[in-house]
Write a structure and sequence with these properties.
The complex is a heterodimer. Chain A is of the alpha+beta class. Among the domains of chain A are: 55-141 and 240-295, Alpha-Beta Plaits; 467-726, Type I PLP-dependent aspartate aminotransferase-like (Major domain) (Aspartate Aminotransferase, domain 2); 734-855, Alpha-Beta Complex (Aspartate Aminotransferase, domain 1). In chain A, helix 2 crosses helix 7, helix 12 runs parallel beside helix 18 and helix 14 (599-609) packs parallel to helix 15. The chains are: A alpha+beta, B alpha+beta.
Chain lengths: 882, 125
């Protein structure tokens, strides 16, 4: 093997006892003494190292680098921000792939293109031919840097040890960063070929490669070879050039759109011009869309697609084996083997990964495009026809930190036997609801920050007659904007709504309020819909333009779901034609406190994107939002925009002890009425436009997008209850809000003193809201939250801004509003902090003590409770109850 | 690498142990090491005839598949059913894990001793 190339880590591999093989002209480790199965499993439960230094690293620089890359890659290079990477194809004129690649942008003025080792020479030749037309250069820097893939659930922890605790990259896939590992400069990408939700590829100067490798092994990572790399990527469903791309076993070119992942790598943005293969790819895309709609009339353009395949009979599939549907050969297996996995038990979030392992026979296949998921086929395994099925996927990664194998289930679960004893069911329901009420209202300490308990009066009103009525109404200009009701019997509720509107205007400190929306999410949808409608009001003859840009808090930085493109913004947000992504940009956060918006950086973002809508507000909220500073800036800079504050969490804190949004310059406030506010579950919209203002028209549009835009029946029972809650809030807000903020700060301090890791700025007592956030260790949030529930303490586990998603949560999000209402003060929160520390840090059973503590605080405060009120309530209750 | 002296070996890396008139057949340590993790074994059924130099089954590892070449001719009288669920035993204990047993032996390949086999493996390895 003397003429084979060797990576910087060759000696490290042979010293570790690796079996070396020829791979694309490189002498590479196929496996280490533990073997492929052990290496695969270690990657999935801990962390493996892969030497990927053999992959081609090509540096593209020069004035026309973007134009050149737009021409030779399928992806939209303009969509690639600094410190981001993107998957792409190097297309051929015939619509096939010369190679697949990853494009990295570690620096403004340079791009790094990483290609398959075996294709590097071919790719370079192809690219050097094309680059002649452009004012830029390609340099092969493969030998200058080593590349080590660090993959698996422990990878982040290991790399953070080397970075001295600094975040390695942003938690999103494809994020990049340049940082120091114990004094050595490294470039890190959150990318990989194993499918691990936590996986990185680290680039380091060649001379330091062995140091990094050995250091990671010391910290607990284990080396893995190309064998495990192949089984891992197969389980993840990733294509491999030469198998799922290139040419098929008959020698025909595999069209790029035959590869599922490739679809995401192809852009038809006008920014890309007439790039190599574009016309053929557009045809493939059209054919692909038909096929996905089960119209198989254009299968000649895309005769086959790469699909996952699972063997049902015992055996092993290998690349090249023919696949049959009846007697018709419909394609071939392109990759296949037995892949190990960890067994699991339990369901949902309580799914437990066991130490036991098993294996399954899976593969990828290139099959006729009319094959559907769940279709049964047969694989010719050396003359024997074995049964196989097309599953939707082999693995999922949407519950980090673990990649989860998805096993094909052959038998459907038997549905439970039918039981028609409805009377027994009804009785059981009452009993269970009663038990639940008793537990949640009397035995538990509820610290969910998005919840509160309503007073008896509010509860009773919610259940009274209006809960079963309708009261649609609309302002009519002909009657000088008088509300006209569509139903009779509504005079009472008409009056209630007028009173509620007045109470809400007074509370929010604004000129107009809409109270018919029945949730915070609906409040936002009505506002977004109105903003879009208002934007298009002068041109009704075209399809309305959506909103963009919108500036908001990223969901992973605590932003509300209801202000995200995946939430309430979904149908109202434009797609930026340059980046081909939602026209949303996020508030930058402070480096030293990720819960705080960085005002100076935000100003730069606003100048760059000139957002037409700025949405303040978070669901993980410890600090005040800088409304006044941003209002001042947009006014000074004369940037036309609308400032909205989604106060869902902090609606009940509006006032002297937190923020007064309208005084600070917000135009629109939305919120939900049941988190820090005292109401049942509803929404509210307030605006501060005056009659005669240009934007008063926007307010009128908001009203019409509430009704008839969002609700027909606006849930009159809870609207009635909300009026009582608004009376309570306006009467008691000063003492309640003061107590909430003081309690939160004190609770945070006590938890910190108990040895728990409390987030936020210690200089302001960790929190300025009702929320307290405690870190309990990466990925431990769900388990700790469940343990607390067993001990009668109800909290909410949350991913912090540097975690990947809710299953990887390492934090508990807590709020003090409900317990403050039940009279908790310093003494009670101090005791609670001690009990929580016992439970979290020492796994002690504190359930009885928690129940005892809760029992001594059973009176609702900040509501009307004198004798006259008691008598009135009892009489009303008698009427409703029986 | 382990080459027990009491066994005989074929050049295609099977071992044979004579138990009275029955040939017990397995694969060598060298073979399992070259294959890597064994994940599936395909074996004949009891009563099947097997012939010298012909495949009597195959063994699949993660990386590859390899035919099992029969060093004797005869009739299969026992098949190691444990291997269906635990093929990795071939990796962990290649000489304690037999594949098939053959009776009514009619023909036999010229087998080699442990020393000769070890020398052969040195050349191949």
């Amino acid at each position: 093997m003397s003429d084979l190339k060797r990576t910087q880590l060759f000696a490290v591999h042979t010293d570790a006892g690796a079996s070396m093989v020829d791979f694309g002209g490189w002498e590479m480790p196929i496996q280490y003494p533990d073997g492929i199965v052990a290496e695969h499993l270690y990657t999935r439960h801990a962390c493996s190292l892969f030497d990927v230094s053999h992959m081609g690293r090509l540096l593209v620089e020069g004035p026309e680098r973007v134009k050149f890359l737009q021409h030779v890659l399928t992806s939209n290079v303009m969509a690639l921000d600094l410190n981001q990477a993107q998957y792409c194809m190097i297309p051929a004129e015939n619509g096939g792939a010369v190679d697949d690649a990853y494009l990295y942008r570690f620096e403004e003025e340079r791009f790094l293109l990483v290609v398959n080792a075996a294709n590097t020479d071919k790719d370079l030749k192809h690219l050097l031919e094309a680059v002649k037309e452009y004012d830029c250069t390609i340099t092969n820097i493969t030998a200058d840097y080593a590349s080590i893939a660090v993959q698996g659930p422990k990878s982040k922890e290991l790399l953070m040890t080397l970075s001295g605790g600094e975040a390695v990259t942003e938690p999103m896939k494809n994020a990049l960063n340049t940082l120091q590992f114990e004094g050595r400069t490294v470039r890190v990408a959150k990318t990989g070929y194993t499918g691990e939700p936590l996986g990185y590829e680290v680039y380091i100067e060649s001379g330091e490669a062995a140091w990094l490798w050995n250091r990671l092994v010391e910290l607990g990572a284990k080396p893995a070879g190309l064998g495990a790399r192949d089984t891992l990527r197969l389980e993840a469903g990733f294509p491999l050039y030469g198998h799922e791309m290139g040419t098929d076993p008959s020698g025909a070119v595999i069209p790029i759109f035959s590869v599922p992942l490739a679809r995401l790598a192809v852009s038809f943005s006008s920014q890309k011009g007439d790039y190599i293969g574009r016309k053929v790819l557009e045809k493939q895309s059209a054919a692909y869309q038909k096929i996905m709609n089960r119209d198989f009339s254009e299968m000649d353009v895309l005769p086959r697609r790469i699909m996952p395949i699972t063997l049902l009979d015992r055996g092993v599939m290998r690349a090249g084996m023919p696949v049959y549907r009846g007697e018709e050969q419909i394609g071939w297996v392109t990759s296949g083997t037995m892949v190990p996995y960890y067994c699991h038990e339990g369901e949902g979030l309580s799914t437990k990964i066991l130490d036991d392992t098993a294996k399954r026979s899976i593969g990828l296949a290139y099959l006729s495009s009319d094959v559907l998921e769940e279709d049964c086929v047969e694989v010719d395994v050396r003359g024997k026809r074995l049964k196989a099925v097309i599953p939707p996927y082999h693995m999922r990664v949407d519950a980090p930190p673990f990649a989860r194998p998805i096993l094909y289930k052959t038998e459907q679960e038997q549905s439970a036997a039918k039981d028609n004893d409805f009377e027994a069911k009804a009785l059981e329901l009452i009993q269970k609801a009663s038990d639940n009420h008793q537990w949640r209202q009397k035995c538990c300490i509820n610290l969910i920050p998005s919840e509160n308990s309503a007073s008896r009066a509010v509860q009773l009103l919610c259940a009274s007659d209006p809960a079963f009525r309708y009261a649609e109404h609309k302002k009519i200009k002909s009657f000088y904007d008088q509300d006209i009701f569509y139903y009779q019997g509504t005079k009472f509720i008409d009056r209630v709504e007028q009173l509620l509107t007045e109470q809400m205007k007074q509370y929010l400190g604004c000129s107009e309020a809409e109270t018919r929306v029945i949730s915070g999410q609906m409040s936002n949808m009505a506002v977004f819909s109105a903003l879009m409608d208002w934007k298009n009001r002068l041109d009704r003859k075209h399809t309305p333009q959506r909103l963009g840009y919108v500036l908001n808090n990223h969901i992973i930085k605590g932003g509300h779901l209801s202000a995200q493109p995946m939430g309430a913004l979904h149908d109202y947000i434009a797609v930026d034609p340059v980046t081909e992504r939602s026209a949303v940009v996020n508030f930058p956060v402070c480096k030293d406190n990720i819960y705080k918006i960085d005002v100076d950086e935000t100003k730069n973002v606003i100048e760059k994107y000139r957002p037409e809508l700025i949405i303040f507000g978070k669901s993980m909220v410890l600090h005040k939002e800088p409304v006044a500073a941003i209002r001042q800036f947009v006014d000074e800079q004369n940037i036309p925009t609308t400032i909205m504050y989604d106060m869902a969490h902090v609606l009940g804190l509006i006032g002297d002890h937190f923020q007064k949004p309208f005084e600070e310059g917000a135009e629109i406030v939305t919120g939900s009425t049941h988190k820090t506010f005292f109401g049942p579950q509803r929404g509210v919209i307030g605006v501060n436009y005056q009659k005669g203002d240009l934007k008063y028209g926007l307010w009128e549009t908001i009203e019409s997008r509430a009704f008839p835009g969002s609700v027909s029946n606006h849930h009159l029972g809870t609207q009635l209850g909300l009026l009582m809650a608004a009376y309570e809030m306006n009467a008691f807000k000063d003492s309640y809000q003061k107590a909430v903020v003081e309690n939160a700060k004190y609770f945070a301090k006590c938890l910190k003193e108990q040895g728990l890791d409390v987030a936020g700025d210690p200089a302001v007592g960790y929190t300025e809201t009702h929320q307290v956030i405690v870190s309990v260790g990466y990925g431990s949030g769900p388990e700790v939250a469940e343990r607390l529930e067993q001990n009668n303490i109800i909290v909410n586990y949350q991913a912090t801004p540097d975690e990947e998603g809710f299953t990887a949560s390492g934090a508990l999000r807590m709020g003090v509003s409900e317990m403050t209402r039940f009279g908790f003060g310093k003494e009670a929160f101090s005791r609670l902090a001690g009990l929580m520390a016992d439970c979290i840090l020492r796994a002690k059973d504190v359930s009885a003590e928690v129940e005892k503590l809760r029992a001594s605080y059973d009176t609702m405060h900040y509501c009307f409770s004198d004798e006259k009120m008691q008598t009135a309530l009892e009489s009303f209750l008698g009427q409703i109850a029986l | 690498m382990n080459y027990p002296a009491e066994l005989n070996y074929s050049k295609s890396h099977e071992w044979v142990k004579m138990d009275g008139d029955t040939a017990v057949i397995g694969i060598s340590d060298f073979a399992q090491n070259a294959l890597g993790d064994v994940v599936f074994v395909n074996l004949p059924q009891e009563g099947d005839s097997v012939s010298v130099g012909e495949a009597f089954g195959d063994v699949e590892s993660v990386k590859t598949v390899s035919d099992l070449i029969c060093p004797v001719s005869g009739v299969v009288c026992a098949v190691n059913a444990d291997l269906l669920d635990a093929p990795e035993k071939l990796n962990s204990d290649p000489y304690g894990t037999w594949l098939i047993q053959v009776k009514e032996l009619s023909e036999q390949e010229e087998l080699i001793s442990a020393n000769e086999y070890e020398a052969l493996c040195r050349v191949e390895g």
